[in-house]
Amino acid sequence: MKTITVKADHEFDALLNRLSSRLHTTRSNVIRSAVRNYLKQLDKEALRQKIQAASLKTREQAIQTAVDLEAASHDGLGNDF
What we know:
This protein is mostly helical.
């Protein structure tokens, strides 16, 4: 395993110590888990943004289709009963 050095102020060091004690694991394990979880969060946010963009595009297309259908129903070519 590769060793990575991280500079931390006293507050961060104390936080890391408390968290590792609370989770009954090593400080290194806490940092590794935090980085993995952060990456998962970023991936989820990117996916959420893609889904939102696709949803907005679909909504715009649905509105345009409704407008087109409404215009076609009033073009004088349909049966008016």
